[in-house]
Amino acid sequence: MANKAIEAEPYELEFDPKSTALLIIDMQRDFVMPGGFGEALGNDVTPLQATIAPTKRVLEAARKKGMLVIHTREGHRPDLTDCPPTTLVRGEIGHDIVPELYPAPGEPVIDKPGKGAFYATDLELILRDRGSKTLIVCGVTTEVCVNTSVREANDRGYECVVLSDCVGSYFPEFQKAALAMIKAQGGIFGWVSDSRRALAALGA
After folding, report:
1. Is 115 noted as a catalytic residue in this protein?
2. Which of 34, 51, 79, 98 is spaced 20 to 30 Å from 186 by Cα?
3. Catalytic residue among 138, 145, 160, 166
4. The one catalytic residue among 112, 138, 160, 194
């Protein structure tokens, strides 16, 4: 596969699909679906549900390209020994990924105990083993786990492009600010694009 380019802000990002991974962060029932943890905190899950369809289109395109796809889930040990007062418990139905984006066989699932996808996980080992250099990032929530993971990735030398319609927040003002922070100052943490431009770059 030859190098591709994705239209993005603050400028176009060139990438090689062979060294690019799709990272889908925390698209879990508890965050996205009615009746889950997110809604129990008083949040409207509608903005997060809107990310499912565009993320699914990008996921299908990445799979067709044979790209590495990695899913993350935030959660804690069933005995709760690593758990803060607000809980997301591994093995419970709410902890699992929404059916529309469910991992295919062979796609790594990173169970993380914190907000960042690299903290206390083997994500970096998996990416290094596959020679990944660029990350296309989807998931929730934009200002918390997505933003934290992108900053962690940036510190480790990865180029990240966040797809604005494939990430979501319960708070519109946080969504806008979190995306602005990523692409500010010439792309201090990464690039911001969207599913339409990503699909065009992937030839889908």
Report:
1. no
2. 51
3. 145
4. 112
What range does the domain containing 85 cover? 17-136+156-178+191-201
Q: What are the residues facing 15 on neighbouring strands?
A: 4
The CATH number of residue 30's host domain is 3.40.50.850
pLDDT in tens, the chain (204 residues): 579 999 999 999 999 999 999 999 999 999 999 999 899 999 999 999 999 999 999 999 999 999 999 999 998 778 877 866 667 888 889 899 999 999 999 999 999 999 999 999 999 999 999 999 999 999 999 999 999 999 999 999 999 999 999 999 999 999 999 999 999 999 999 999 999 999 999 997
Does 112 participate in catalysis according to the annotation? yes
pTM of the model: 0.95
Q: Is the peptide bond before 10 cis (omega within 30 degrees of 0)?
A: yes
Nearest to 72 by CA among 139, 150, 16: 139
Residue 64 lies in a domain: yes
DSSP assignment of 32-65 equals HSTTSHHHHTT---HHHHTTHHHHHHHHHHHHHH
